[in-house]
Every structure is written in structure tokens, then in C-alpha cells.
Backbone:
């Protein structure tokens, strides 16, 4: 065998190894992208399952603030929101309602 033939064969072998290496890297990258894609879909599905929203127009009593449901029953606004969201409530009274209900006999906390 001549030296030119051997060096040509080595160049072809080097090119083939380079191509195999590049194809291997592409497969690893493809697998990583597929795994990230599956993880993203899983996260989106989890988020979608956790989302609860109120939509549309809610018929509400102008006086007591109860909300009429689809069956025509009137419910406290708190129970309606609890049923359709993850929200919860703590109750208190605003200064105007304290004055209306208890009059001026209740001392108000000082504002700082």
C-alpha cells in the first residue's frame, strides 16, 4: 500500500468518526429536548388542574351581597368564592360599620 492511499484512508476514517460523533451529540440533544418538552407539558397540566376561575356576570343582591347561583339559590359571597377558587376569608369590620353597629362607644385603634 502506498503512503498516499493510507493517508487518504485515515482522512476518510477521521471524517466518519467526526460524523458519528456529531450524530451522537444530536441524538443526546434531541433526547434532552424531548425530556424538557415532556416536563413542560407535565407542569402546564398540573397548573391547569389547579386553576379555578370565576367567569361571567354574577347576580348579586344590592343589599346583603348574596350571590344567586345557577339553580336560583342565594348564597353568601364567601361560600360562592370558596367553591370556585382557592381563596379563603377572615372577617373583620371596617371603621364605618363599627360606628354603625356599635356607635362611638368602641375605641378605635390609633393609627401610626
Residues:
Amino acid at each position: 500500500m502506498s503512503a498516499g492511499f493510507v493517508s487518504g484512508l485515515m482522512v476518510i476514517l477521521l471524517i466518519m468518526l467526526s460524523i458519528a460523533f456529531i450524530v451522537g451529540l444530536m441524538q443526546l440533544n434531541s433526547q434532552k429536548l424531548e425530556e424538557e418538552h415532556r416536563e413542560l407539558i407535565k407542569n402546564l397540566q398540573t397548573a391547569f388542574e389547579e386553576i379555578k376561575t370565576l367567569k361571567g356576570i354574577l347576580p348579586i343582591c344590592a343589599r346583603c351581597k348574596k350571590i344567586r347561583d345557577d339553580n336560583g339559590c342565594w348564597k353568601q359571597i364567601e361560600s360562592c368564592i370558596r367553591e370556585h377558587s382557592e381563596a379563603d376569608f377572615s372577617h373583620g369590620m371596617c371603621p364605618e360599620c363599627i360606628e354603625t353597629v356599635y356607635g362611638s362607644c368602641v375605641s378605635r385603634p390609633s393609627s401610626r
Observations:
- The chain has a mean pLDDT of 84.
- The first helix runs from residue 3 to 50.
- Helices lie at 3-50, 77-84, 95-102.
